[in-house]
Design goal:
By secondary structure, the protein is α+β, with helices and mostly antiparallel strands. Strands 1, 2, 3, 4, 5, 6, 7, 8 and 9 form a 9-stranded antiparallel sheet that branches. It is globular. The two termini are 29 Å apart.
Length: 214
């Protein structure tokens, strides 16, 4: 057994105070995301964890890539028949989480989810490298398969089938938009007195801003 009691660091790179934050959380997200994107020590600023609740009541978390964000919400793509897709279709809710340790920051987003328009999913699908398109078409995501060779064989078949033609977007693959109703911004601070500012959507109109104890 390894004792991890002393594995800690001091957070002191920045602070988060009410007089300097944006009144709209998407604008605050944009500012932080741009800083993370421009930081040479952060490889994928758009990598985010998505947690959904499964039928047994236990959350399942996985990493995906944010592909777009607007004032309406955050867009990502997946297989609708995957574990995450099935959970989303049942609850229409998820929690998104960004963690940028080099900036000592994290963002937690609770959101309602819905599918984006099919033409938007088509547009993004066909903007991807052909290998990625074939990978999405060939994989029965989250389903049990006999072995690795099973997928590799199916991929070779599709590569030959669509060698000189466009790969159609699978009907069970597309985008979701996560429309936030609560966004928390966390900035690490010394002595574990971290800054936590939370935005809560009131009556689908205005954002209430509060500070939470660390």
């Amino acid at each position: 057994m390894e004792n991890l009691h002393d594995k800690r660091k001091v957070y002191e790179k920045s602070q988060l105070i009410e007089s300097e934050i944006k009144q709209n959380p998407i604008e605050q997200f944009r500012d932080w995301f741009l800083e993370a994107s421009e930081n040479p020590n952060i490889y994928e600023a758009n990598a985010m964890a998505i947690s959904t609740v499964e039928e047994d009541g236990c959350p399942r978390t996985r990493m995906v890539l944010l592909k777009e964000y607007t004032f309406e919400g955050f867009i990502f793509y997946t297989n609708y028949d995957s574990k995450k897709g099935k959970s989303i279709e049942k609850t229409h809710k998820a929690c998104l989480h960004f963690f940028w340790p080099n900036l000592e920051r994290q963002i937690i987003i609770k959101a309602n989810l819905e599918r984006i328009a099919e033409n938007l999913s088509d547009g993004y699908f066909h903007s991807r490298p052909k290998g990625s398109q074939l990978g999405a078409a060939v994989s029965p995501q989250s389903q049990e398969i006999p072995n690795k060779e099973f997928l590799e064989g199916k991929l070779k078949e599709l590569e030959k089938e669509y060698e000189n033609s466009e790969v159609p977007r699978p009907e069970n693959w597309g985008g979701y938009i996560a429309k936030p109703y609560e966004i928390e911004f966390w900035q690490g601070r010394p002595n574990r007195l971290h800054d936590r500012i939370i935005y809560e959507l009131i009556d689908n109109l205005d954002w209430k801003i509060s500070r939470l104890a660390p």
